[in-house]
Amino acid sequence: MLAYKTTCRVIYGDTDNMGVAYYANYLRWFEMGRTEMFRSLGLTYKTIENKGFFLPVSEVHCKFMTPVQYDDVIGIEVSLDTSVRGGMKFDYKIVSEDGKAVHAKGYTKHAFVDCNGRVTRPPKFLQEVIQNHISKL
Amino acid sequence: MLAYKTTCRVIYGDTDNMGVAYYANYLRWFEMGRTEMFRSLGLTYKTIENKGFFLPVSEVHCKFMTPVQYDDVIGIEVSLDTSVRGGMKFDYKIVSEDGKAVHAKGYTKHAFVDCNGRVTRPPKFLQEVIQNHISKL
Amino acid sequence: MLAYKTTCRVIYGDTDNMGVAYYANYLRWFEMGRTEMFRSLGLTYKTIENKGFFLPVSEVHCKFMTPVQYDDVIGIEVSLDTSVRGGMKFDYKIVSEDGKAVHAKGYTKHAFVDCNGRVTRPPKFLQEVIQNHISKL
Amino acid sequence: MLAYKTTCRVIYGDTDNMGVAYYANYLRWFEMGRTEMFRSLGLTYKTIENKGFFLPVSEVHCKFMTPVQYDDVIGIEVSLDTSVRGGMKFDYKIVSEDGKAVHAKGYTKHAFVDCNGRVTRPPKFLQEVIQNHISKL
Questions:
Q1: What's the pLDDT score for residue D75?
Q2: Helix-, strand-, coil-residue percentages of chain A, each rounded to 5
């Protein structure tokens, strides 16, 4: 399984009137997770775009279990669902700093789109990078 | 069906590097939708909180069909799924100003929580307001 | 004086751990104000961009007097400082719904930039629209 | 001079239609900077709040020099203006990863407020922590 973990500090601007992180901000953390995962593969998402491919989000799902508080360090765990063909699917867990509490679980699905906004096949260079990493696991 | 529609103008701050609305902002629009629906029932969400009940989001789902552009006016359509007991479920559609294009579809689920953060039953005053409106449909 | 007023409802996503609107969101409201002012002149900011001119913010200032609460309707008052040449300067007041309380005061300064990112003179079509409106005051 | 530097990666959610970071997000970075500065002094802002003191922003200023791009790592440099009595003033620079380019410069001013929202004097424990660090410079 291709997986990666990064962390993030919750700031005041992430919280809301209930004193916990606002639900939309989990989607920012999902983005951080998948971006850092690409980077860990040696291929930044920025590079993918520079090569003319885009990965807009086609679907997002998130279950919120326990709230995240101001100034918490959260763990962002992301893994690639390699069973998905055509596009990409990432699974996420937002966990506490020590990894013991799961704050939220979710996924995002992405289509490949070319410069003209047309849905396209996954680019070969990306498939190779992923296959390469999977073969080393 | 309890339903409500409101609108919102997409600002620069809602957009991203791809020139379209960033996916997390759809969750802000979902919030606007359900808040205005409560208001249309004659009971603001703020009042519900002042009475000691909170409705944190326990789950969110969204499918993104066509992107929303800068300066678009979007329609936020929300309906209450009255088949759900215990908590609340809202269904959303983000549509174009003329209602012809569906940009996104999604739902949120919410638990009722009291001042001490304990999950609780739906408050009677809210059930009555909803029943009252349904009976008039 | 060229001036315009619009309003906005404060949502949960705008608030923070202190129970009031997070300070960065005032800059979103400033944007809403100046965008709607352009629209009121019959020339949207989007049109200006489509004609090849951009107005990035070069400076922002804001004084926060009294906090804005969740679910407040705020008034966004904006006026164009017509004494500024070269770029544009907008002055803002964030006021309570009834206009009696001033929550914040600020300004933004903008340079004109062309498609290549070079600072340029104010476009004639914009100067004419503004002169035209000022002459009618 | 009390100073601190931290870094942050610019995500898609920070950018806008112009392909650069949206101006309101600089205020998030200012917050990150001052929060990490407090932490470096051995006293988190959260602890200050837990002791009953709040530091709402009373004023913010920012000059934007060169835009920040998607996926940039930015440096957030913050220093405490120790000449200010009564409240606190922080000066900020948003710089490129190598520190050579200055993207933005700004400051925030803060009042001390107690649990009842009344402006109060700076708490002794905070003054001591700051004096202690200054004496070591």
A1: 98
A2: 30, 35, 35
